[in-house]
Specification:
By secondary structure, this protein is mainly alpha-helical. Helix content is 45%, strand content 11%. The protein is built from twelve helices and eight strands. The protein has helices at residues 17-21, 52-65, 70-77, 81-87, 95-105, 109-118, 128-136, 138-148, 153-160, 164-176, 206-224, 244-266, and strands at 5-11, 25-26, 35-41, 93-94, 124-125, 180-185, 188-193, 199-200. The strands form four sheets. A two-stranded antiparallel sheet has the order 1-3. Strand 6 (180-185) and strand 7 form a beta hairpin. Helix 3 (70-77) packs across helix 4.
Length: 309
């Protein structure tokens, strides 16, 4: 067992740090059992292991390793296949159901929790050849993003009215830079994405510069300076006086948070079966303060009257 893991016995219905540490699990309050023995890592609530999506992703991965299908699981649980699918695509799972699944699949709950805790997503960056392709032909990037959302080449072709020649050009170019593996059997075409999510552009990327310039201009107009804010709009400008070490730690922490949510966003196994989640755009930028960035209207000066500013 992981040296950071400890065993804790908690009685049903009693408040406990252990109970609250498993965010997303619904603990029964009127359970006939006297207690559960749970394992949790000595990490603060809110770190990676406590994301219910990552806990469920680890469970799905372990079920796949054991070659236990949802259909078999439904039979063992005495329920329908649809119920099993819905249960494993929710953000919360009743503890009794989770423990029962672990029992059927012979999964140690401590191992499941530890695997979720150890799952710290790291971005895979596009390499130079891939970045050059996107920069030279920006629609290639949009096509690749469409494939990552789960659309097939045929669905993309119908949506954007592409010719067969254009579809072939997209697939051939993306395959040539090792982003896709395309196999054809008769009229059926299978596309496998060869890089693991979350996926991003490395610092200095030409495509990143292009996308950032376009988006930052748009977000400043729509969100930062706009008085007509929409629900979900968010902006933050915060001057911080930090040491170099504190600044590096802050940006590292921010990147870890973004990586975690990027994995939830991009990993197909974490998406609900009918994925109708809206798409959000996030931009983060930070740099050492420059006096030239100061608003000239805010410069301290002699005042005649408040109205004369």
């Amino acid at each position: 067992m992981n040296e950071n893991a400890i065993s804790s016995t908690v009685r049903c219905g009693e408040p406990s740090d252990t109970l609250t540490s498993f965010v997303g699990l619904n603990f029964p309050r009127d359970c006939p059992r006297c207690c559960y023995t749970l394992f949790h890592l000595t990490e603060p609530v809110g770190r990676t292991m406590h994301d219910p999506e990552l806990l469920l992703a680890s469970l799905k991965s372990m079920l796949k390793e054991r070659q236990l299908s949802y259909a078999t699981l439904a039979i063992e649980l005495g329920t329908s296949l649809l119920t099993v699918k819905r249960s494993l695509n929710k953000s919360a799972v009743p503890l009794d159901r989770l423990l029962e699944i672990c029992r059927i699949a012979q999964i140690d709950f401590a191992e499941l929790a530890q695997r979720a805790a150890a799952h710290k997503p790291v971005h895979t960056y596009f390499n130079t050849a891939q970045d050059e392709l996107f920069s030279r032909c920006p629609p290639m990037y949009s096509y690749f993003v469409a494939l990552r959302t789960g659309l097939s080449p045929a669905e993309i072709a119908r949506k954007y009215r592409l010719t067969r020649e254009s579809t072939a050009s997209y697939l051939d170019a993306l395959s040539s830079v090792n982003l896709l593996l395309v196999t054809t059997s008769g009229k059926k075409q299978e596309v496998q994405i060869l890089i693991e999510p979350p996926i991003g552009h490395r610092p200095g990327s030409r495509m990143l510069s292009r996308l950032s310039a376009t988006f930052l201009k748009s977000v400043v107009e729509r969100v930062v300076v706009s008085t007509d804010r929409h629900e979900g709009d968010f902006s933050l400008l915060k001057p911080l006086r930090l040491s170099e070490r504190q600044y590096r730690q802050m940006t590292s922490d921010l990147l870890e948070v973004v990586n975690r949510y990027a994995l939830i966003s991009e990993n197909p196994s974490l998406a609900p079966e009918e994925d109708d989640r809206p798409e959000w755009q996030l931009a983060l930028a930070a740099a050492k303060a420059n006096p030239k960035d100061t608003d000239p209207e805010s410069t301290i000066r002699n005042l005649q009257t408040l109205d004369s500013q």
